[in-house]
Amino acid sequence: MQARKKYVLLGLCACCWLVLFYWGGGVQLRLLRLLTRQRGEVVRPWPNWTDRAFLPRYAHLDELQTDPGTAESPRQRRQAWSAIYKDSRCRMETCFDFSRCRRRGREGFRVYIYPSEKNDHVSESYRKILTSIAESRYYTSDPREACLFVLGIDTLDRDQLSGQFVPNVDERIRGYPLWNDGRNHLIFNLYSGTWPNYTEDLGFNIGQAILAKASLNTEHFRPGFDVSIPLFSKDHPQKGGERGWLVRNTIPPRRKYLLMFKGKRYLTGIGSDTRNALHHIHNGKDIVSLTTCRHGKDWEKHKDARCDHDNLEYERFDYQELLHNSTFCLVPRGRRLGSFRFLESLQAACIPVLLSNGWELPFSDVIQWNQAVIEGDERLLLQVPSTVRAVGNERVLALRQRTQMLWEAYFSSVDKIVLTTLEIIKDRVFSHISRNKYMWNSLPGGLLVLPEYSTHLAHFPFYYLGLGISPGQEFTAVIHAVSPLVSQSQPIMKLLQVVSKSKYCSQIIILWNSEKPPPNRSKWPPMPVPLTVTDGRRKTTSRFLPHVAIETEAVLSLDEDTVLLTSEVNFAFLVWRSFPERIVGYPPRSHFWDPLKRAWGYTSKWTNDYSIILTGAAFYHRYYHYLFSHYLPQSLRTLVDRTSNCEDILMNFLVSAVTHLPPIKVAQRKQYKELPSPQGTKSVPWANPEHFNQRQECVNTFANWFGYMPLVHSQFRLDPVLFKDQVSVLRKKYKDLERA
Amino acid sequence: MYPSGKYSSRGPALIPRMKTKHRIYYITLFSVVLLGLIATGMFQFWPHSIESTADWTLDKRSVHDAPLVRLPVSSPIPERGDLSCRMHTCFDVYRCGYNPKNRIKVYIYPLQRFVDDLGVPISSTGLSREYNDLLSAISDSDFYTDDVTRACLFIPSIDVLNQNSLRIRETAQALAMLPRWDKGMNHLLFNMLPGGPPDYNTALDVPRDRALLAGGGFSTWTYRQGYDVSIPVYSPLSADVELPERQPGPRRYFILSSQTAIHREYRAELERLKEENGEALLLLDKCSNLSQGAASARKRCYKGQVYDYPQILQESSFCVVLRGARLGQAALSDVLQAGCVPVILADSYILPFSEVLDWKRASVVIPEEKLSEMYTILKSIPHRQVEEMQRQARWFWEAYFSSMKAIGLTTLQIINDRIYPYAARTYEQWNNPPVVKWSSVNSPLFLPLIPPRAPGFTAVVLTYDRVESLFRVITEISKVPSLAKLLVVWNNQNKSPPEGEKKFKCPECTAIDGLSLDQTHMVERSECINKFASVFGTMPLKVVEHRADPVLYKDDFPEKLKSFPNIGSL
User: Rg (Cα) of chain A, in Å, rounded?
Assistant: First the structure.
């Protein structure tokens, strides 16, 4: 009996379980999931459908390939667009008249500035902007050939309460015959709106004009049309500009303070949400966040319990000292979205931590900001400390260097800010001859990369390492000839022999700059490489013209009287291949600051350092020919042609300004000054004291144009590995270099 | 005997004990059963959570088993979608929070079949193969969470890839029915074919509140920069056809046009280009003698000659991708797959993943107005650049276009980069193909800085067991004016380091300087080099023929005027 009962009971239980399992598969699953989650496993949640192979396609191939098409003609559609997409919906396609920029490249992109009227007050910042444009290579005084128009009226400060506010802009621009509802116009603005809301309203109708504005909001920003610019102070330098403050990388890269802020606290009004909360993250140790209520006329009226204590704490720290000693700098919005603080921290290599929701960052079209700043969220202020703490040392190092790169490339002067704006617009107008993002975001920056030269990265001297390639194996020699050909024993004949014997030489170009016409082809010696004679039209700058005949990346620039050995040429070329962005050559010169004259000096004395390599015998990348002829202003090239002097100094200025590095001197058998003077030809120009004085002046004129002294000193020379070592000559590859 | 005796000795006490044991056993069994019943009942009928997860089963199921949801006619419809939405206004960042892995958590709604009041489904296709692939790729990825409360991003299982198969109003209602919809906040919709006749809107017409849209075919007027994600239009040929990667270089044709439904105005323009430039251009069209269907989609014709599509794309350097009624074209994917450089003529089109991909390195974008100048523009591009573009195009396809998985995960990564910008992937990571990633050098100290002299340098001296020379090194180096610190690393295993200022004498170790002359030592070092090179996957060391010397090194010049007169005098 008992046994039967037992079995019945067991059977019943089994049935119960079965029923339960049948009904409640979910229970099982849920139990299982409960168990598995505790073991840290994730249940595969999206089922592996049994019939997934039978699921329909999202679209038939036919549907994808055969576009339904529209009856509307594309031409009509484009015309209709410009009627629909106007004003706040402007895009280049609909609001910009491309036909004004018909001519290709630089020729097509001309900027005209309206003359300012006599009684107009123009602020210092706007004057600088206009000067930058007027001195740029895009300026034209003829409105008929202009592609872009800039107003003479100062539109920087559109705060009605400001002293700089210009009234009646609307009526005035409407009177301009060229205004054309703002088409092809560029309007600069730093401040818009006024207390208390600081809206984006400029107080006049900009129509279809492109807006280059600071503190732009993403909502009002017309992508691909407007340009967001940084807020800069009236003391921002016109050109050159201070370098970034980072002089060396420290490892580990953390500074004394982790994060700092020192600024106003807004008790009321727009922007106060964030500014009012900043004091919460202050810990007095590695996070210093100081706010003061003491600003504006009636601060005491709004003052709260914190104010007195905060004001005291505020005085204890110096802003400049904090900037220097902090790893991260908080850049919260003020009344407007952008602040001076942004550029200040960028220059100080203090990584900006942005708390400015909706701010369209400066030049956001082209700059990848997430590689240089930390984009925070105003809503997550309290997370900022843990976020910045979690940023790894490697990233801090990278972010910090990038702040410096961007500062020096695009922000350190008004010139750079304005030129970047123009170049961005130009890249849009000529979109298939424009820079890619890599060019904009790697050294030396987009302003020094001219897309008219090439749009291909490998054609520039800067990107070999980043692309994982190395420069070509051949060079082109360009010989600058000024003396007429009279005898077969002239130095140029010897030079031709020597250079053409180099296994790396692909061709020789003789730049004929003599008063006499070039000699017959048969006068030149026979050579294993092609020889081209080009007429330089007796202009000194012609030696740096981007001659189409130059097909190799490397150029060996030579004076006709240079004395070299083939092995010297070979060695220098191999060195250049390791440093393709720099000038590699022989005779060095130096510059120095003369405190008595308060001017720069130039010296050819033998010294322990140098900053210039004469281009009478030097290797460099052919791109510098293009930069020399198209980036430098006409005024400097005219100076060089007028004096027939200084072209080599100017080239050194240019290359050092691009690389921030000195040129490289290589071992040379004979010193330049020991060279035998050319017989029966022209007298040596550098024996002439006038020639030397001119060079002193040149250095100062050039430094003036660049806005700073780009030349950098170097103390080393690159010699062959066994150079003058006490080993057998037979083991030395470049033994010729040691012969006296 | 002994054990049995032991057994029998305990025998009598056994039976009653068993009885109590049985009783306990029964009671336990009963209570287990009872508890089981109660627990099951509770699990079954307890209102455990709003989400019905009951349809998940371990066994394989058909999509037709997904629960049916009936939409009442009066069910609310979301708002149209706000063009001013940006991450800081329409996205609830608190859901994502601070997270040590800097990775967003994505939740996928379980599959449901929505029908209207009359039982008609809201979509003519239901779940498509592509959307299923996308969702299962996401659920297999690191982004996935099955915990709805921890999710930062929600993906509905309602398939809206193709607007043509949708009933707009009902789909919108279905979206609004989602338990966590909350005005579409943090919801992500994937759509590849937006708009419908006659105007073909460039974004999905389904009202969707604040939901983010990953759309294929945005124009600059519908794309909310920094909020939406522009995605490719997936081409099923990516999976069906295998096109081997071809070496970059010149191809048989210069320009190829393979789309079949080109507006006649543009076709006329292309014909004119063909007349001017002859053989360099190949203009293909539909084959008139083939019937509609899959076969015709894989063929193209020119004057009676039949070509295989997409294979023919590999025979051209440039391939035209013209806009049609829609901006996004599946042909772009085919063209990239073939390693042909796309020439994109679609004004205002936001290119796929343009937020992170540098399209200027993989394509040529020409304004539609300039179609007639296409040949001249393309001819002006240097050969080497065209080759780089071909390689780049193929790489974009492989990494970002080739499967629904690639498209889905790229989209999530882009959103992830926005939410954790300080952990965002770099330009190089997005744009460099593996071959460049391997060969390129990105120095962690990339900024050209010439540090000031003042802080000097730290000397680190490794001792080995060469004590004599160690002392010589230390004495010499401590004379250097710019030495800031001297650090001696004691790796001598035979002796412990000297203490304090006490001089350390070593009579037995005279001139054991010959370590580097030891043959086995050299062999070991060669082995090291080989080992390291194999780990690096490449030989990073470079050979140069130069060395740095002071400017006046060994020049015929008064020694006392040289900055470094003693160099080389040892």
Answer: 34
Structure tokens at A572: 């220098």
Chain B residues closer than 8 Å to A437 by CB: 358, 360, 427, 431
The two three-digit tokens of residue B293, written as one number: 């269907």
Determine the average pLDDT of the residues in B100-125.
Answer: 92
Please report, to the nearest 10 degrees, the dihedral formed by the alpha carbons of residues B387, B389, B395, B401 taken in order.
-140
Residues B241 and B193 in one domain: no
Q: Which of A561, A648, A719, A736 is catalytic?
A: A648
The beta-carbon contacts of A299-305 under 8 Å, at least 24 apart in sequence, are A299/A267, A302/A267, A302/A268, A303/A267, A304/A267
Predicted ipTM beyond 0.85: yes
Note down the domain range covering B462.
Answer: 457-490
Chain A touched by B350 (CB under 8 Å):
no
Q: Which among B234, B551, B561 is the top mutation candidate for probing chain A, defined by the most A β-carbons within 10 Å of its own β-carbon? A: B551
C-alpha A526: how far from chain center? 46
Cα angle value A484/A488/A489 (rounded, 5°): 100
Angstrom CA distances, B444 to A249, A354, A394, stand at 10, 24, 8
* Together in a domain, B484 and B390: no
Size of interface A-B (CB pairs under 8 A): 366
Cα–Cα distance measured from residue A221 to residue A219, given in angstroms and rounded to the nearest whole number: 6
- Rounded to the nearest 5°, which phi and psi values hold at B23? -60, -45
- Are residues B66 and B112 in contact, defined by beta-carbon separation less than 8 angstroms? yes
Q: Give the side-chain half-sphere CA count within 13 A for A175.
A: 7
For residue A504, the tally of other CB atoms under 10 A from its CB is 20
In a domain, B338, yes or no: yes
Catalytic annotation on A535? Answer: no
Sign of CA dihedral A594, A597, A603, A605: negative
Torsion of CA B215, B216, B222, B225, to 10 degrees: 70
A700: Cα within 13 Å, side-chain hemisphere: 11
Q: Which backbone phi and psi does A289 adopt, to 5 degrees?
A: -130, 105
Give yes or no: residues B253 and B226 share one domain: no
Q: For residue B494, report the phi and psi dihedrals to the nearest 5 degrees.
A: -90, -25
* Domain count across chain B: 3
Q: What is the pLDDT of residues A509-567, one digit of tens each?
A: 999 998 888 888 888 888 899 999 998 888 889 999 999 999 999 999 999 999 999 99
Residue B432 counted as domain residue: no
Q: With an 8 Å Cβ cutoff, are B294 and A61 in contact?
A: yes
Q: Are B548 and A665 in contact (CB under 8 A)?
A: no
pLDDT given for residue A677 in this prediction: 43
From the options 3.60.150.10, 3.40.50.2000, 3.40.50.1000, 3.40.640.10, give the CATH code of A257-405.
Answer: 3.40.50.2000
Q: Indicate the helix (H) or strand (E) that contains A289.
A: strand A287-292
Tens digit of each residue's pLDDT (9 = 90 or more) over A375-407? 999 999 999 999 999 999 999 999 999 999 999
Domain boundaries, chain A: 88-228, 257-405, 475-675+685-718
Separation of alpha carbons A204 and A206, rounded Å: 6
Q: What is the DSSP letter of B409?
A: H
Mean pLDDT of B210-235: 95
Contact (Cβ atoms closer than 8 angstroms) between residue A718 and residue A667: yes
Structure tokens at A619: 């290797």
Given a contact cutoff of 8 angstroms between Cβ atoms, the answer to whether B212 and B155 are in contact is no
Chain A residues within an 8 Å CB radius of B553 = 717, 719, 724
- Distance between CA atoms of A534 and A552, rounded to whole angstroms? 17
Say yes or no: B509 contacts chain A, CB-CB below 8 A. no
d(CA A704, CA A427): 29
Looking at the domain A475-675+685-718, which fold is it? Spore Coat Polysaccharide Biosynthesis Protein SpsA; Chain A (3.90.550)
- A119-123, A144-148, A406-410, B378-382: the lowest-pLDDT one: A119-123
